[in-house]
Design brief:
The protein has 462 residues and is α/β, with parallel strands linked by helices. It has four helices and 31 strands. The longest helix is centred in the first third of the chain and has 47 residues.
Length: 462
């Protein structure tokens, strides 16, 4: 009996069956913990990574938008990544007052948070961040910060809207208006019905509705870039220059005349370098050519200054000769409205052609027509590009004028392909526009174009 018991104990000691079960019973807790770490933590990482991608995209979208609805766009982008604000315990916040790494608080920030349920990780004593839907859950989150980037865009048509007009740029039944890709800008709103003007960017400080292939609203106001030319280059008004005499044209039958014969232009204009003054209204009685001296370095270009008067083409053409260049300046001391300060064509029906090339250097570089900004009346143009026809290389500056553009502006016969117009407000009608042959060469024409700053692709900074 005793020996049998001893043999049994010996066999029991040597028997290794069931050892694994014992070991597994001892290791089950740490194994479950390892599984929790391996599965749940990696799941947390994947969810957080997806959140971060969504936050990056959301904040960049908001910064690129840079408008009043930036937060709406940011949240919409986050939703496309599967993180819709207020759905399945997801929270998305987008602000535009975040601190920027380089200083300031103008950066855009997107914050995304959500809860995931705790599973095996509870074995390790992880209690989570709160009870959601009756169960312990862990809160995950991601944050991204972006800085709005901007870029300048050159402008062919700039409406300063200093008069406060609600819409600086507008159309009036102009389905064929075509600016051939040039950009337009209004310092108030822009409204284009029936035609996007064939413009590239249709920009406005207010709302840009239908203008341009790419309408852009909420653009910063563009400061008048040519205002100071008057102070630098137009001599102070001196009534003795014209002896206080400014003859005005009068209608006679179907035509207009000016009492003083010297105001009826019948001979080519051979201008001197510098300022050449004319007093009161000027009327062409035949096709004329403007001849000017060669523009040396430094350039003292020829300037034709009309004081208290308009230039009536009267159905004829006024053209700069090959090798000549001129700046036509309208100025004067009478703002009562009794004088017009414009190029016109006062005959019955269309006609007349203004064919001007601006100087390419000097104080009036790139400027073809300039209305003194001190003039606020007698400055409106109602039939630009049609009567008279405009073949112009350079800038047409009419800062207080309402300009109705009705025809297509082409380049001057002897100038580069460049046309820029600055007015208080511009209305496009009929076949208004800029011909394809009159865009793209403003730099070589001596004109620094105005530009507006628009949002560009944003940059992640955090």
């Amino acid at each position: 009996m005793l020996r049998s018991m001893l043999d049994g104990l010996h066999r029991l000691r040597a028997d290794e069956r069931g050892a694994v079960a014992v070991v597994m019973g001892i290791l089950i807790v740490p194994l479950i913990g390892a599984m929790a770490i391996g599965y749940e933590v990696s799941n947390w990482y994947m969810v957080t990574r997806n959140m971060q991608n969504a936050a990056d995209a959301a904040t960049m979208a908001a910064a690129t938008n840079a408008g009043a609805n930036y937060a709406v766009e940011g949240k919409a982008v986050a939703a496309r990544y599967g993180f819709a604000d207020g759905v399945n315990n997801v929270s998305v916040a987008v602000i535009n007052t975040a601190a920027c790494p380089g200083g300031g608080n103008t950066c855009y920030q997107a914050t995304i948070s959500s809860y995931v349920p705790l599973l095996l990780s509870r074995v390790l004593g992880i209690t989570g961040d709160g009870i959601v839907n009756g169960s312990l859950q862990k809160k995950l989150g991601a944050l991204a910060v972006a800085k709005a980037a901007t870029k300048p865009e050159d402008i062919c048509i700039l409406a300063l809207a200093s008069s406060g007009v609600a819409q600086g740029i507008r159309t009036n039944g102009a389905p064929v208006a075509n600016l051939n890709g040039c950009n337009v800008m209004s310092n108030t709103a822009a409204q284009c019905n029936g035609s996007d003007l064939g413009a590239g960017f249709g920009m406005a400080h207010g709302n840009s509705d239908g203008c341009g292939a790419k309408p852009v609203s909420n653009v910063p106001v563009v400061t008048d870039p040519y205002f100071d030319l008057a102070k630098k280059n137009i001599p102070p008004f001196d009534p003795t220059t014209c002896g206080g005499n400014y003859p005005q044209e009068k209608k006679k039958g179907n035509s207009y005349t000016v009492a003083a014969p010297k105001n009826n232009l019948s001979a080519d204009l051979n201008l001197n370098a510098g300022n050449n003054f004319m007093c009161g209204d000027q009327i062409l009685t035949k096709d004329l050519v403007i001849n000017t001296p060669a523009c040396n370095n430094p350039c003292n270009s020829a300037v034709l200054i009309i004081e208290n008067g308009e230039l009536d083409l009267n159905g004829f053409s006024l053209t700069t000769a090959n090798g000549s260049a001129v700046t036509l300046v309208f100025t004067g001391g009478d703002n009562s409205g009794s004088h017009n300060h414009i190029p016109s064509n006062n005959i019955n029906g269309p006609g007349g052609r203004l064919d001007l090339a601006a100087p390419t250097s000097g104080p009036w570089s790139g400027v073809a027509i300039y209305q003194d900004p001190s003039l606020t009346s007698g400055v409106d143009v109602s039939d630009a590009g049609n009567s008279p026809i405009w073949n112009i290389t350079g800038l047409v500056y009419m800062p207080h004028a309402t300009v109705t553009l009705k025809g297509a502006v082409d380049k001057s016969t002897v100038g580069k392909s460049c046309f820029v117009m600055v007015a208080d407000n511009v209305q496009f009608s009929g076949t208004a526009g800029i011909t394809k042959s009159n865009v793209g060469q403003c730099a070589s024409a001596g004109l620094k174009m105005p530009s507006a700053t628009i949002p560009s692709r944003s940059v992640l900074v955090l």
